[in-house]
C-alpha cells in the first residue's frame, strides 16, 4: 500500500523504507533531518543474538528521544511545516516500530518470521492517524497485528512482547489482533472499524498477508457499497459537531474534532478513499480522474493549505502544553499565534489576526466538505433523478427537484443569471424544503457571481424578504457559509472570522450577528415570552420591521476597523441600505439604530436609572416611542446572541424598568416630576403600607431617610426596611443582615443595617467576595440617625440567585466578622478560588472615567479593569480613602472585564469638581484596578 494515503496534498509523502532495509537507518532524510543510528543493528548485533531486554529498552528510549527532539527542533526552527513534521514523525516512528518488530522476532521466535512451524505468520500494520503516515507529538500509535488465521501461542507471545516494550517506552498504543476473516466480519456492521482498516498501512512482517487483506477488504467494500459508509460518517460527524461545537466560529475551537477541523478533512478523505480507492485529493482533479473530476486544482490546493495549517496549529498546541491538547483555549491563542509569527498589524492584534486565519481556514473546510461530499455521493451512487418542479413559477425560475429537495435546473446557467441563487433559497424557505447537497455545491462554486447583484433591485427585494422572513437566521447562515453574503455585501467580508480576544463573546462577529437575527426569529414566534415579555410584546407593534432586521445585520459591521464601531457602522449603513432597497426614512432609522445600539444596555447597567437625569438624557436621544421600541428589541437580540451565560433575570429587569420609565416620559407622563414631589409621593405610599403601625413609629421612620433613599425603593421595600429598623432598635442590635431571594430577577437581595463609618462598603464587598457572591448592583444610604442602610443585589458564580441556605448563613457571618475586624479580608480574598488558567491570558487595561455631567447631584465614576476576587473591595476602599461617600454602585462583568460605576459625593454632600482632587482620585483608582501585590504572604493593592 502506498503510505501517502493520508489527506489532500499535492506533494508526495515520505518514501517507505524498502522491505529488508535497516529500519531507522535513513528515516527523516526526506525532511532534511540528521540521520539516526541504525537501531535494528544495535538491538540485534548478530543474527539470533539480540541484546538483553533492559539494554534494548535503553537503546529504544534514546532513539525515541532523538526522534522527538529532532522533529521538534526542525519544526520550531520553521524548517518543517505542521504537515511535514507530522509525516517526519510518522516516518521516524515507522523505523522505531520496525526495529522493535525485528528485535521481537529475534527474541521470541526461533523462526525467521516470528512463528513456530505450523503457526500462522502475521503482518504488522499501522491504522488510524498513524496509518495515514501522520503523527502528532503526543498522538496515539494504532497498530493492527494481522494474520491469515488466528495466531497460535508463539504469535500471541510476540504480540505481547512488542506491546510491553512499547508501553515501557511510555507510548500510548491502540492495538488489535485479528485474522483477515475477523477483520472483515467485524467491519461488516461497524463503520468505525471500516474506517480504521481503510487507513491500514503495512509496516513490517508478512507483506503477503497484508496484500491479501487489501484485496479482500477492497472486494468487501465494493460488496457493502459506499452508501452505508457515507450514512455512518454523516451520523458520526453530526454527533461529533454537537459535542465539540456545531459552529466553525467558536472562539475556543477544537482543532481536531470541531466543525471545520482536522477530522472533517479526514472524513472527506475517507469517503474518497472508500468510494474510489484514491490516496490523495489531487487524484480527483481532471476529467480522467475517478468520478470525472470532482475537484478543481484550486480546490485541491485549498484542501492542502487547510490540512497543513491545522496540522501546524496542532503541533504548536502539543509542544506548548506538553500533552495531546486539541482545544485552542484563550491562554494558548496568543502563545501559538506568536510562535506562528502573527504580530500586530494596524488596529488588529497578532492573536486576532491568527484566529481570523484559523476561522477562515475552518470556513474553507466546511465549504470544501459541501463541495466534495455530494459529488462523491453522486459519482459513487449515480446522479440523482432530477425532476421538473411541480409549480410552473419554480420551473420558470430555473429550479428543479431531486430526492425531494430543491436543486438548480440542469440547463440553468447560474453565472448568466446569478439571481437564481437567491430565488432558490427563497423557494426553499417559502415551501419549507431542503436544499439538495448538489445545490449547495453549486452555490459555493457560483458565489463569486453574487457581486453582479449589488445594484439589482429585484435581487435586493429577494434578499430583504429572506432577511425579514421566517427562519431568516437559517437562510442567512446558508448564504454566509456558501460565500454569497461576503460577495453581495463587501463590508460583511471584513467581519467574517473576526474575533474579539475576550471571554465575553462566544462567537466571531458574523456568527454573533446571525445569532442575533435568530433571537429576532424567536421573538417573532413568541418563544421568549417568559424570558423577555416586553420585547416579545413590542416586536409585534413595530412599524419599522425591515429597519430592525437590517440594523441587526449591520450593528457590528464595522468592528475590527479601529475607532468606535457604532459610529463607523452608522456610516456603512448609509451606504449599504439604499443598495438593499430601503427608503430614505428606513436608511436613516437603520443608521441611527447602529449608532445607538449600545445606548440602552450601557445606560441600564452603568447608570442609576432612579436618577431622573438618566431617564431624561436617554429620552432626549431617543425622542421617538418607535425608536425606543426598536432599540429595546435590538438590545435584547444583541445581548442574548453574545453567549448563553450573558443574559439573566437581573439584566432583563433593569432593561424592562428603563424602557417603561423612558416610554412614560416620551408619552408625556410624569415619571420624572420635581424631586420634592416624588419624595412626598414615596413617603405617602410608604405610610400607607405601614398604616397598621402607631403614628409615632410611622413618623419616626419617615424622618429617617434622606430624599435619595425615598427615591431608590418601592413602597413594599420601604415597609420591609421599617420592620427591620424597628426590630434592630428594639433589640439594640449593632448589626442586622437580612437576605431575600428574588427568583424572578435571578438575584439575592442583601440588606445591611449598622452604624455607618468610612470604608463600610469596602468591608461588606470584601466579605461578599469571600462568600463567593458577585455584586451586580448596590444602593448605599446613610440615615438621619447616623446608621447605614446598605442594599446589595448578588448572584452566584453561574449568574443565578445566591440562594443556598448554608451559603446565606455563612454570608451573614462573614459580614459580621468583616465589620468587627475579626476577618482578615486581604488574606481571605486571596484564598478564593482562582479563575481557570485559560482565562488569565486575556488582559484588560485599567481605565477610569470621571463624569460630572451624567448626574445633577453626584459625580459618576466608571471603572474598567480585569475582574478578580476582591476587585470591588479594593476599588471601594480607594474611593473611601479619598474621603468620598458612595451613594450607589452598578456592577457589570463582560467575561473577565469588570465595568463598575459609582455615584459619589464628598463629605459635604457635593460633587467633586476640584481638579487636584480628581487627579488624585484617578491615580488611586488606577492603582486599585491593577493586580494585587503579594508582600510577605499577604495580598495588598499596588
From TrEMBL:
* Domain comment in the entry: Has four distinct domains: an N-terminal nucleotidyltransferase (NT) domain responsible for UTase activity, a central HD domain that encodes UR activity, and two C-terminal ACT domains that seem to have a role in glutamine sensing.
Task: Name the Enzyme Commission number(s) assigned to this protein.
Answer: 2.7.7.59, 3.1.4.-
For this UniProt record, the keywords arranged alphabetically read as follows: Hydrolase, Magnesium, Multifunctional enzyme, Nucleotidyltransferase, Transferase
Feature: compositional bias, Low complexity: 10-29
**Name of encoding gene:** glnD
* CDD domains registered for this protein in UniProt: ACT_ACR-UUR-like_2, ACT_UUR-like_1, NT_GlnE_GlnD_like
Organism equals: Roseomonas haemaphysalidis
Name of the protein this chain belongs to: Bifunctional uridylyltransferase/uridylyl-removing enzyme
Q: How is its activity regulated?
A: Uridylyltransferase (UTase) activity is inhibited by glutamine, while glutamine activates uridylyl-removing (UR) activity.
The record's listing under InterPro entries reads: ACT-like_dom_sf (IPR045865), ACT_dom (IPR002912), HD_domain (IPR006674), NT_sf (IPR043519), PII_UdlTrfase/GS_AdlTrfase (IPR013546), Polymerase_NTP_transf_dom (IPR002934), UTase/UR (IPR010043)
Q: Say yes or no: keyword Nucleotide-binding present.
A: no
Amino acid at each position: 500500500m502506498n503510505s501517502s494515503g493520508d489527506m489532500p496534498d499535492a506533494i508526495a509523502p515520505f518514501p517507505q523504507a524498502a522491505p529488508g532495509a535497516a529500519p531507522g537507518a535513513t528515516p527523516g532524510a526526506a525532511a532534511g533531518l540528521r540521520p539516526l543510528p541504525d537501531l535494528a543493528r544495535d538491538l540485534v548485533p548478530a543474527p539470533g543474538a539480540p541484546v538483553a531486554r533492559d539494554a534494548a529498552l535503553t537503546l529504544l528510549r534514546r532513539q525515541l528521544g532523538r526522534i522527538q527532539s529532532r522533529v521538534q527542533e526542525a519544526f520550531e526552527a520553521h524548517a518543517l511545516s505542521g504537515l511535514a513534521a507530522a509525516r517526519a514523525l510518522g516516518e521516524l516512528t515507522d523505523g522505531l516500530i520496525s526495529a522493535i518488530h525485528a528485535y521481537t522476532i529475534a527474541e521470541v521466535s526461533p523462526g525467521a518470521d516470528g512463528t513456530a512451524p505450523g503457526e500462522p505468520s502475521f503482518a504488522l500494520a499501522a491504522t488510524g492517524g498513524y496509518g495515514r503516515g501522520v503523527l502528532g507529538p503526543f498522538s496515539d500509535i494504532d497498530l493492527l497485528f494481522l494474520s491469515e488465521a488466528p495466531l497460535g501461542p508463539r504469535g500471541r507471545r510476540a504480540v505481547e512482547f512488542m506491546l510491553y516494550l512499547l508501553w515501557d517506552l511510555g507510548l500510548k498504543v491502540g492495538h488489535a489482533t485479528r485474522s483477515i476473516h475477523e477483520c472483515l466480519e467485524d467491519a461488516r456492521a461497524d463503520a468505525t472499524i471500516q474506517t480504521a482498516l481503510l487507513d491500514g498501512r503495512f509496516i513490517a512482517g508478512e507483506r503477503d498477508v497484508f496484500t491479501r487483506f487489501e484485496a479482500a477488504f477492497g472486494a468487501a467494500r465494493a460488496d457493502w457499497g459506499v452508501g452505508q459508509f457515507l450514512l455512518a460518517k454523516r451520523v458520526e460527524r453530526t454527533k461529533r459537531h454537537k459535542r465539540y461545537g456545531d459552529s466553525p466560529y467558536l472562539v475556543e475551537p477544537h482543532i481536531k474534532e470541531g466543525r471545520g477541523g482536522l477530522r472533517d478533512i479526514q472524513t472527506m478523505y475517507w469517503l474518497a478513499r472508500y468510494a474510489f480507492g484514491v490516496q490523495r485529493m489531487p487524484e480527483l482533479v481532471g476529467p480522467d480522474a475517478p468520478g470525472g473530476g470532482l475537484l478543481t486544482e484550486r480546490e485541491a490546493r485549498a484542501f492542502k493549505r487547510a490540512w497543513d495549517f491545522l496540522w501546524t496549529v496542532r503541533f504548536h498546541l502539543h509542544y506548548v502544553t506538553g500533552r495531546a491538547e486539541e482545544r485552542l483555549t484563550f491562554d494558548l491563542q496568543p502563545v501559538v499565534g506568536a510562535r506562528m509569527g502573527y504580530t500586530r498589524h494596524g488596529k488588529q492584534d497578532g492573536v486576532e489576526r491568527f484566529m481570523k486565519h484559523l476561522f477562515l481556514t475552518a470556513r474553507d473546510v466546511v465549504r470544501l466538505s459541501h463541495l466534495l461530499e455530494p459529488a462523491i455521493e453522486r459519482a459513487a451512487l449515480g446522479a440523482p433523478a432530477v425532476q421538473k418542479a411541480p409549480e410552473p413559477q419554480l420551473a420558470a425560475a430555473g429550479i428543479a427537484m431531486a430526492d425531494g429537495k430543491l436543486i438548480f435546473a440542469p440547463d440553468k446557467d447560474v453565472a448568466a443569471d446569478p439571481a437564481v441563487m437567491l430565488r432558490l433559497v427563497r423557494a426553499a424557505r417559502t415551501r419549507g424544503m431542503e436544499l439538495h447537497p448538489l445545490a449547495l455545491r453549486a452555490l459555493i462554486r457560483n458565489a463569486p457571481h453574487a457581486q453582479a447583484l449589488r445594484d439589482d433591485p429585484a435581487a435586493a427585494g429577494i434578499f430583504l424578504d429572506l432577511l425579514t422572513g421566517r427562519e431568516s437566521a437559517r437562510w442567512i447562515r446558508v448564504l454566509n457559509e456558501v460565500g454569497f453574503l461576503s460577495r453581495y455585501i463587501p463590508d460583511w467580508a471584513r467581519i467574517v472570522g473576526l474575533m474579539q480576544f475576550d471571554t465575553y463573546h462566544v462567537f466571531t462577529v458574523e456568527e454573533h450577528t446571525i445569532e442575533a437575527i435568530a433571537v429576532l426569529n424567536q421573538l417573532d414566534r413568541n418563544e421568549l415570552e417568559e424570558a423577555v415579555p416586553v420585547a416579545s410584546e413590542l416586536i409585534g407593534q413595530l412599524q419599522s420591521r425591515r429597519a430592525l432586521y437590517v440594523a441587526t445585520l449591520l450593528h457590528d459591521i464595522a468592528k475590527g476597523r479601529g475607532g468606535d464601531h457604532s459610529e463607523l457602522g452608522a456610516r456603512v449603513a448609509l451606504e449599504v441600505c439604499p443598495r438593499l432597497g430601503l427608503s430614505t426614512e428606513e436608511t436613516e432609522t437603520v443608521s441611527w439604530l447602529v449608532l445607538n445600539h449600545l445606548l440602552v444596555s450601557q445606560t441600564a447597567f452603568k447608570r442609576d436609572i432612579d436618577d431622573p437625569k438618566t431617564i431624561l438624557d436617554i429620552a432626549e436621544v431617543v425622542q421617538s416611542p418607535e425608536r425606543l421600541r426598536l432599540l429595546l428589541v435590538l438590545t435584547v437580540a444583541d445581548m442574548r446572541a453574545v453567549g448563553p451565560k450573558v443574559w439573566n433575570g437581573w439584566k432583563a429587569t433593569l432593561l424592562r424598568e428603563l424602557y417603561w420609565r423612558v416610554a412614560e416620559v416620551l408619552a408625556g407622563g410624569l415619571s420624572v416630576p420635581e424631586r420634592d414631589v416624588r419624595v412626598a409621593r414615596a413617603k405617602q405610599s410608604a405610610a400607607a403600607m405601614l398604616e397598621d403601625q402607631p403614628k409615632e413609629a410611622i413618623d419616626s421612620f419617615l424622618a429617617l431617610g434622606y430624599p435619595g433613599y425615598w427615591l431608590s425603593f418601592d413602597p413594599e421595600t420601604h415597609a420591609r426596611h421599617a420592620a427591620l429598623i424597628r426590630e434592630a432598635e428594639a433589640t439594640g442590635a449593632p448589626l442586622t443582615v437580612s437576605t431575600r431571594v428574588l427568583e424572578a430577577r435571578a438575584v439575592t437581595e442583601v440588606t445591611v443595617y449598622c452604624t455607618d463609618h468610612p470604608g463600610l462598603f469596602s468591608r461588606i464587598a470584601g466579605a461578599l467576595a469571600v462568600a463567593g457572591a458577585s455584586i451586580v448592583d448596590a444602593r448605599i444610604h446613610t440615615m438621619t440617625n447616623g446608621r447605614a442602610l446598605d442594599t446589595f443585589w448578588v448572584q452566584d458564580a453561574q449568574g443565578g440567585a445566591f440562594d443556598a441556605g448554608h451559603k446565606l448563613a455563612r454570608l451573614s457571618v462573614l459580614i459580621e466578622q468583616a465589620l468587627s475586624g475579626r476577618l482578615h479580608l486581604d488574606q481571605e480574598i486571596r484564598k478564593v478560588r482562582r479563575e481557570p488558567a485559560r482565562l488569565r491570558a486575556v488582559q484588560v487595561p485599567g481605565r477610569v472615567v470621571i463624569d460630572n455631567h451624567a448626574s445633577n447631584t453626584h459625580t459618576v465614576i466608571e471603572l474598567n479593569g480585569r475582574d478578580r476576587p476582591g476587585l470591588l473591595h479594593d476599588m471601594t476602599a480607594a474611593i473611601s480613602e479619598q474621603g468620598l461617600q458612595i451613594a450607589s454602585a452598578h456592577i457589570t462583568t463582560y467575561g473577565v472585564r469588570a465595568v463598575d460605576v459609582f455615584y459619589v459625593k464628598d463629605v459635604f454632600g457635593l460633587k467633586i469638581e476640584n481638579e487636584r482632587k480628581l487627579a488624585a482620585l484617578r491615580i488611586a483608582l488606577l492603582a486599585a484596578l491593577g493586580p494585587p501585590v503579594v508582600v510577605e504572604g499577604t495580598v495588598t493593592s499596588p
